[in-house]
Specification:
74% helix
């Protein structure tokens, strides 16, 4: 039941925002009008036809025309990987060595599949002067939005690190090594994010350099973030750990799924009601960003308070009552991973 409860908790957290976004999209045409309101109606009709595919998280395997709901791929991929995680955690609990071996193999499969796809197709994301829309859409549809490429590697890397640290939360690492690890981590994070800055402004960028960077940058990001997580968990995070442990981030953790899923609808609503042309200067873009972020936080807060919090409460009550009806388990010894799943 620990593994079933883990999947159910995550399914509620990931599916509920998707359902609410689909419902909001369907009723959005009734909440206003504007010069571009036909765009809102088109997305509402799309949501009405395909809501069930988004709800059961299979829409990532169907190619749709570009729409304001395409960002929900992340929720579906994370749900699919969560379903995979449950048997992996069971395997690690019962046969730790075999479980570690399977997770390591999945990490390798994720790296190999991502690089192989890029080598065989030549499709990758690169937004600059030489922007190729067809290349971008093909990469997003057939690689980035599928769970068995770089996302498989990153997710299983997290499982691997969590499994290793589950019984070794206090690692003693010399100061010189911590400094070296932080330098390597920050260098990888900076390079994976800003490594193509010069190429973006080139009319004819070096395609080989761009290709190599795009093939390796996801895994550079994974390594950099992995050390940050390990350092904070084992007590070597320092000021980074204190900053990330601020209470405001606890609040954002509750709202992050809602902010992510709802902000596209707020952009659509603002765009559809524009009644005059807007100049896209840096100042206007920053102001638009601030408005969308503020509205996303406000709307997400109400969705969380009035929808997710009551549903989470009811689900916890039902799961707790069902577990009490089972035979007593005082003499059963739960493993560390299983015990932690209960609090997820």
């Amino acid at each position: 039941m620990q593994y079933v409860q883990f999947v159910m908790n995550r399914a509620i957290r990931l599916t509920l925002p998707v359902l609410c976004v689909m419902a909001t999209t369907i009723i959005l045409p009734l909440l206003g009008d504007g010069p571009h309101w036909e765009e809102v109606k088109r997305h509402a009709e799309f949501a009405e036809r395909h809501w069930w595919e988004f709800t059961i998280h299979i829409h990532t395997y169907t190619i749709y025309t570009h729409n304001f709901l395409s960002h929900l791929w992340f929720m579906s991929v994370l749900m699919q990987l969560t379903i995979i995680a449950a048997p992996l955690l069971f395997l690690c609990d019962r046969w730790p060595k075999h479980g570690l071996f399977v997770i390591i193999m999945l990490v390798i499969v994720g790296i190999t599949s991502h690089v192989t796809y890029m080598v065989t197709t030549g499709n990758f994301v690169f937004i600059g002067y030489s922007f190729d829309k067809e290349n971008l859409y093909s990469y997003l549809a057939f690689n980035y939005q599928r769970p068995y490429y770089s996302h498989l590697c990153s997710y299983c890397t997290g499982l691997l690190i969590g499994n290793i640290l589950s019984n070794k939360l206090q690692l003693k690492i010399k100061k010189i090594y911590r400094v070296i690890f932080w330098i390597i981590s920050l260098s990888l994070l900076m390079y994976s994010t800003f490594g193509l800055h010069k190429q973006i402004t080139e009319v004819s960028p070096n395609k080989s350099f761009v290709f190599i960077h795009k093939a390796l940058s996801p895994f550079m990001l994974i390594i950099g973030l992995s050390w940050t997580c390990v350092a904070c968990i084992t007590g070597h995070g320092g000021v980074v750990n204190r900053f990330l442990s601020m209470k405001v981030f606890t609040i954002f953790d509750r709202l992050n799924a809602w902010v992510y899923t709802l902000h596209f609808l707020i952009i659509l609503y603002i765009y559809a009601q524009l009644r005059k042309a807007t100049t896209f200067t840096e100042l206007n873009l920053w102001m638009l960003f601030a408005v969308v972020l503020f509205l996303s936080l406000i709307v997400s807060f109400f969705y969380y308070i009035f929808i997710q919090a009551p549903v989470d409460f009811l689900a916890a009550k039902l799961l707790r009552s069902s577990s009490r009806k089972k035979a007593p388990v005082e003499n059963c010894q739960l493993t560390t991973i299983s015990t932690r799943l209960r609090s997820d």
